[in-house]
Amino acid sequence: MDGSDRVLMEGLTEAMRRIGEAQRDALELIAALDRSDSWIDEGARDMAHWLWITYGMSDWKARRWIAAAHALPRLPRIADALATGVLSIEKVVELTRFATPSDETHLIEWAEQVSPARIRNEADLRRKADTDAAADEDASRSLLRRFLDGGRRFELFAELPAAHGAVVSRAIDRIAAQVPEMPDEHGRAEARRADALLALCSGHLAADPDPDRTTVVIHTRTGDRSSGSTAAAIEGGGVADPSVVERLLCDARIQVVREDATGRTVGIGRMSRVVPPWLGRQVRHRDRGCRFPGCGTTAFTQAHHIRFWRNGGRTDLDNLVLICSFHHKLVHEYGWWIEGDAEAELRWYRGDGTRYRAGPERRDESPLDLAS
Hints:
By secondary structure, this protein is α+β, with helices and mostly antiparallel strands. The protein has three domains: 3-123, no CATH class; 142-207, no CATH class; 249-356, no CATH class. It contains twelve helices and twelve strands. The longest helix has 34 residues, at 3-36. 24% of the residues are buried. Mean pLDDT is 78; it is low at 129-137, 222-229, 252-259 and 364-372.
């Protein structure tokens, strides 16, 4: 190895050390931002979601970094090993899963000699296995339901044998882990479980071979939506507010097809507000996932009218965009909106009128106004 190669290697080593120092600082900032809930107003459902929208991380990596960020304050030697380039970020993330203040010095020496995969394996082995508690079944089971508050609320109460309850709880928790949180519901596990129960029931209805018997019918009257008096009646009991009805009607059934002058199927125009299954499939094929900048989620997605139907929007491909249930609620119930052509460029705006762009703030751009 000649002198020039040695200089290159030493330069790379120094650059990697600076990267480690920057990553240590980044983890400190991640922990602080997570504690402050700063991501709530940025179109994200949690801190991990904000990281992979903003910086292009995978969800798995974002969640590992967040966990490591919260663990490092009690592991100062491991934090220093990252900042000085002794240990890589991959090794540190895995070490923080099981290291303690009493053994971190020993673990650093060990981690220097092994691969990140070996450390990950050790962390997996040390992780406590989940156990299911079981109890003897009793003879009673029941499920009570009723509408409250003039039909605006629905109450459900179930009593099941313990073994059956474990099955229900497991199913709801599994789905709740995938259902996105809304901005003002951080940490509210009960809200996520309620959304999971709705998703479970909706999935069953969607799979039923008899759509007529499994359709939830909503009766609404024509009127001025801004008056606040256009709530809709749900067949079978209950009332839905206008913004909720508007969101629900983004995805339904129709049997009309419209083509342009070249014979290309573009949608159904103003014939109906609801999106037929065949058109919904084209929207999903084109968009692949949620079109919110940087999101891309494929679960719980719905076709949404960019220009609302009530404002003259058409049920056509260029006016339909695929967005996940979280960002769908942001648009209909939290004041966000979209402009543009779904076949070309879309622009997202926050409720306060400022334009939203994914990724770090651009240093060479002046603040955006509504017309940009």
